[in-house]
Specification:
The complex is a heterotrimer. Chain A has five helices and 13 strands. Chain A is of the alpha+beta class. In chain A, α1 runs antiparallel to α2. Chain A is globular and about 50 Å long. Chain B folds into two domains: 192 residues, no CATH class; 180 residues, no CATH class. Helix content of chain B is 54%, strand content 20%. In chain B, the strands form three sheets. In chain B, strands 2-3-8-5-7-6 form a six-stranded mixed barrel. A two-stranded antiparallel sheet of chain B has the order 11-14. Chain B has a two-stranded antiparallel ribbon with strand order 12-13. The longest helix of chain B has 41 residues. Chain B starts with a helix and ends with a helix. Chain C has two domains: 196 residues, no CATH class; 171 residues, no CATH class. Helices cover 53% and strands 21% of the residues of chain C. In chain C, the strands form two sheets. A six-stranded mixed barrel of chain C has the order 2-3-8-5-7-6, surrounded by four helices. In chain C, strands 11-12 form a two-stranded antiparallel ribbon. Classes of the chains: A alpha+beta, B alpha+beta, C alpha+beta. Chains in contact: A-B, A-C, B-C. Chains B and C meet through α2, α12 and β12 of B and α2, α5, α10, α11 and β11 of C.
Chain lengths: 251, 407, 414
């Protein structure tokens, strides 16, 4: 999910920028980048092709998909492989979601209750993808600096609705890209870790091309997302992509 | 009166015979009292183990709510309804509930569950929910409290104080809403259906999460002053609250399978009870017959010296009556002592679990006045009837035949 | 031998007394037998109906599937396991099953559903599924002309999805390989009523379900029905140990559970009911005992004079005791035999016909219209033992007493 990746990145920057008195040069630059990114990413449309590998003790599954999205509200994903599942597509508009299954040639609407399940059998949940949180309002931020990294620790405020006791982001100071995002329980034990790896240039931006999500308490489970291509603001207008008709169209 | 005096004297003349017969009659009475008490106690135990585990004795819903537990099928005017019900003398307590299916997530795992928003205080008077708590404490009405069943707590790998996020669909719209809780209590009913699936939160927070007004609920649960009210539907509530929108059903209508089992159990109890009666009757009749037949010589003498057949019959009947009354008095007193004890302390039947509530081995019997009025009356009547034929037989004997008894 | 002859003669000499004593013994036997038959019967009938409805007597799963059902906790070699079960003499029949939660869709609605893949032929021989068809016909495992597999759906789905016979039902679930399982089926039959426990089930042919869930050749459960329905626990134990010791390579990791474990809530409720019944039976036995006690005592004590004469003419005290005991014993046996003549047909009638109930009961999909008893050895041996035992026991003390009494005193008794 393109916006998913961008959202995560954006979050890191927003959090960094939330910090007190910036140190002149470096931080002024950070703020400028944030401003630029916010201008770029807000309402931005994008197109991507990615591979997702899901590993469990019982099976290993590799899927290739293409996706189109606009902002956080609209996205369209189509499975390209494995062959059995080729053509299965998902349309998301705000909080509503539809699936299309070519084998049975039916479009079905996903009921709200199913939205909590795992996304495509991976270790990500729909919740990860769908939720819109205002991080700075709902979390307390703390910053740790090392030579190469910034570690921002987010602790939820008392009223914040989340299952996590603590989340931290590790950002590469030099490249200004995220390195890791870790989720902890109330006792400080790391439960999930999301690693950002292999940064590449996509449409002129440096972004991580490989995400690995590991649920530490479930042995043998791992989900890997690899971005093969990623375009921002593609030349052909993408509004038609976000229709039910498009679910069934030839590709 | 002579008959009366003679009867008493006869009874005490052959004490052994009298005592033997009296023992049979009194023990039969005792056995019947205990059996009756046990059957009542068992039935009530089975029923209350069900009704006290969330079901209550009757429930009020919007029509159709029970089919799918559709969160949209709530009713309004909760306060008025509750006040109306509480105002009726046969209703002991009413509590309102908000129900919704949802996802229960912890930092470690996620499970589907049924969320029960309850009026914590009132519920303690409805059922055993407070007693089912094994860790932590019962709801106190503070925000963020949640109670989970032990199996669910294990599945979610949580203990007291851990975070829980409940995700559910709001009513009338279906938007997802989420709320944060901290495990405040862990319960165990012993009923898999409840323990694995149900979480309890405070009703007002549930209403907020579901997005309904403070006056709306999905369910009203109530208990009556006596179990018979729900069993026989003797309250007016069953008519007054059944209309186009709402329905009020007794626990039996809500749990047809258990009600069915109870019916079967009731039937077999009836059969056993009848068999008991027949046995007791057989015993009494047999005893009376025997004691009279053994005295044929004595009756022969009586006839020989001029007692009329009718007088003889009268005497025998009078003896039977006195014997019956005396035995029943004796049996009644001992029976009373026995059943009072078992009603208070229960019968030591060893450990067994019933519908999930582990009973530490004691079934309490139930005492009823009828046990001491109807049962003895029947026994005395039986004694009398049992004596009829032998009395007639005795009155018809030919003295010479009777007197020539052999060994 | 003389004693025996004497005993018989005594019994028949005092006909009335003997008859009355025999009546209490025989009547006690009869009523006790009926009581045991009825309580055992209703208990066993309910269990039978319940277990033959869906559960079976024994179920085999992988690991802890029963407590934590997960789609990939499967029995991977069901064919080999079937062969072993086929050759086991205690197994009457068995059936393989596949389970998965799913979302069911029609053109207009959707509803959660529980998918069950059944070996249709085997299942019909093992449980009562075929009798639960309320509309349409029990499906077969073949695809129809249009390439659809058939499905049987619960009555609750008919309303929830607004769908009927011949309609198309779409199922969405997660496959065992992580993919999204999706397929369409034609509704060939409707199972049960709107309030049946099966109302949200969708039954598919086993192969269709395995294909749907991407788990070819694997099953979640094997349900077994035994020839002796009381042997569930012992057969389960022996099967389990056989698999663990003799065939660990193939079948290790499998769990064999008797129905008492599979349906523990039901079992516990029935057990508690049985406990209560036991006590009632205890009371019955108590009354029977008192009845026998009464009549035996009375008959012995009334004959003090007779015994006095016997001693006076030289009988040994011990002989008297033996004589009395023998008489009571024989009388008990004769009464039991006579009562048996009535008890046998009565119990048979209860077992075959039974009491008609005011309202038929639904237990696990099986309609109970009559309350039936049970015909088994226990029904007759237990009361026989009680009667015989009490008669003998009760006759000894007064027999001893009668033997020791001084003849003159005895003969002067009333």
């Amino acid at each position: 999910m393109t916006h998913f990746l961008i959202r995560l990145t954006l979050v890191c920057f927003v959090s960094i920028s939330a910090f007190g008195e910036p140190d002149s040069a470096v931080d002024a630059r950070a703020i400028k980048i944030i401003d630029d990114m916010e201008r770029i990413y807000r309402g931005e449309s994008s197109r991507a092709e990615m591979t997702m590998k899901v590993q469990t003790p019982q099976y290993e599954r590799t899927m290739k998909m293409s996706s189109v999205s606009r902002g956080e509200e609209k996205s369209f994903i189509r499975l390209l492989s494995p062959k059995k599942d080729r053509g299965i597509s998902t349309l998301k508009l705000d909080e509503e979601m539809w699936n299309y299954f070519p084998k049975i040639n039916k479009v079905i609407k996903v009921p709200p209750s199913m939205m909590m399940g795992s996304w495509m059998g991976s270790d990500f949940t729909n919740d990860d993808l769908v939720k819109q949180t205002s991080l700075t309002e709902e979390y307390d931020l703390a910053l740790e600096e090392t030579e190469d990294t910034w570690r921002i620790t987010l602790t939820p405020k008392a009223q914040t609705v989340t299952v996590w006791g603590k989340i931290d982001y590790v950002v590469d100071r030099n490249l200004m890209i995220p390195l890791a995002q870790n989720y902890y329980d109330d006792r400080g034990e790391m439960i999930r870790s999301l690693a950002f790896m292999e940064p590449k240039e996509f449409s002129g931006k440096l972004l991580p091309s490989r995400l690995e999500m590991i649920p530490l308490k479930k042995e043998g489970h791992k989900t890997v997302i690899i971005y093969e291509t990623l375009e921002f603001d593609p030349a052909d207008g993408t509004e038609e992509a976000f229709t039910l008709r498009n679910l069934k169209s030839r590709f | 009166m002579l008959t009366f005096k003679l009867a008493i004297r006869n009874l005490f003349r052959n004490t052994r015979r009298t005592i033997l017969t009296a023992i049979l009659i009194s023990f039969s009475l005792m056995a019947l009292i205990m059996a009756d008490g046990l059957m009542l106690g068992m039935k009530d135990l089975l029923v209350s183990s069900l009704t006290k585990n969330l079901v209550g004795e009757a429930q009020l819903h919007r029509k159709g709510f029970r089919d799918n537990f559709d969160v949209d099928l709530y009713f309004t005017g909760t306060d008025d309804l509750v006040a109306d019900l509480r105002g009726r003398p046969e209703v002991t307590e009413v509590a309102s509930r908000v129900l919704s299916g949802g996802m229960v997530s912890s930092s470690y795992n996620v499970a589907t569950g049924m969320v029960f928003g309850i009026d914590a205080e009132a519920e303690t008077r409805i059922g055993n929910i407070k007693k089912a708590i094994i860790e932590g404490q019962y709801l106190t009405g503070e925000r963020g409290e949640i109670m989970l069943g032990r199996p669910m707590a294990e599945l979610l790998e949580v203990s007291l104080g851990d975070r829980i996020v409940i995700t559910l669909s709001e009513a009338d719209g279906g938007d997802l809403s989420q709320a944060l809780f901290r495990v405040s209590g862990i319960y165990y009913f012993g009923l898999r259906e409840i323990d694995h699936n149900t979480v309890f939160i405070n009703a007002d927070q549930a209403r907020q999460a579901v997005g309904i007004s403070a006056d709306a609920s999905h369910e009203l649960v109530m208990v009556f002053e006596d179990l018979s009210v729900s069993r026989e539907k003797t309250s007016t509530v069953f008519d007054d609250f059944n209309n186009e929108q709402l329905e009020l059903k007794s626990w039996m209508e809500l749990n047809e399978d258990i009600a069915t089992m109870l019916e079967l159990s009731g039937l077999s109890t009836l059969v056993i009870g009848s068999i008991l009666f027949l046995l007791a009757s057989l015993g009494v009749i047999n005893s009376m017959f025997m004691s009279i037949y053994e005295r044929l010589y004595e009756f022969g003498v009586a006839r020989a010296i001029g007692t009329t057949p009718w007088q003889l019959a009268q005497l025998i009947l009078c003896e039977a009556l006195l014997l019956g009354i005396g035995s029943c008095l004796f049996g009644g007193v001992i029976g009373y002592g026995l059943i009072s004890y078992t009603t208070l302390h229960g019968l030591p039947l060893g450990e067994f679990e019933m519908s999930g509530i582990a009973l530490s081995g004691n079934i309490a019997t139930q005492m009823q006045l009828s046990q001491f009025t109807e049962l003895p009356f029947y026994i005395i009547l039986l004694t009398l009837v049992a004596a009829l034929y032998p009395a007639r037989f005795a009155s018809k004997i030919v003295p010479t035949e009777a007197l020539s008894r052999s060994l | 031998m003389l004693l025996l002859k004497l005993a018989f003669r005594n019994i028949f000499r005092q006909r009335r007394r003997s008859l009355l004593t025999a009546l209490s013994m025989g009547g006690g036997f009869y009523l006790c037998a009926i009581a045991i038959s009825m309580t055992d019967g209703s208990y066993n009938n309910i269990i039978r109906a319940f277990t033959l409805s869906q559960t079976g007597h024994i179920q085999i799963h992988k690991g802890n599937y029963l407590l934590r059902p997960k789609i990939h906790t499967t029995i991977d070699n069901p064919f080999e396991l079937s062969t072993i079960l086929d050759n086991d003499s205690s197994v009457k029949s068995h059936a393989q099953r596949v389970y998965a939660p799913a979302l069911a869709y029609s053109d207009t609605d959707n509803n959660p559903a529980s998918v069950r893949g059944l070996d249709l032929e085997q299942e019909a021989m093992t449980t009562r599924i075929k009798q639960k068809v309320t509309s349409g016909e029990y499906i077969n495992a073949n695809m129809d002309d249009e390439g659809y597999f058939q499905a049987m759906i619960g009555a609750g789905l008919v309303d929830a999805l607004n769908i009927g016979l011949g309609g198309e039902i779409i199922l969405i679930s997660q496959g065992a390989d992580g993919s999204v399982a999706n397929d369409v089926y034609k509704v060939g039959a409707i199972i049960g009523e709107k309030d049946s426990p099966e109302r949200y089930n969708v039954y598919l042919p086993l192969l269709a379900a395995q294909e749907f869930l991407s788990m070819p050749g694997r099953v979640h459960e094997i349900a077994i029905v035994l020839n002796d329905d009381k042997a569930a626990r012992s057969v389960a134990r022996s099967l389990q140990s056989r698999m663990q010791t003799q065939l660990p390579d193939q079948f290790s990791g499998l769990t064999v559970s008797p129905w008492q474990v599979v349906e523990s809530t039901f079992y516990k409720t029935m057990q508690s009911d049985k406990e209560g019944n036991k006590f009632s039976l205890g009371i019955i036995i108590f009354i029977v005992f008192i009845g026998v006690l009464n009549t035996v005592l009375m008959s012995v004590l009334e004959r003090t004079r007779e015994f006095g004469v016997l001693i006076a003419i030289g009988s040994r005290p011990f002989t008297i005791t033996t004589l009395i005991t023998l008489e009571m014993g024989i009388l008990a046996l004769l009464s039991i035999a006579a009562a048996l003549v009535f008890a046998l047909p009565s119990v048979i009638w209860f077992t075959e016909v039974g009491f008609e109930m005011a309202q038929p009961m639904d237990v696990g999909g099986f309609m109970f219209s009559h309350m039936r008893g049970e015909f088994s050895a226990t029904v007759f041996t237990t009361p026989a033992l009680i009667i015989l035992g009490s008669a003998l026991l009760v006759s000894i003390p007064p027999g001893l007493r009668a033997a020791r009494i001084a003849p003159t005193k005895a003969m002067g008794a009333h």
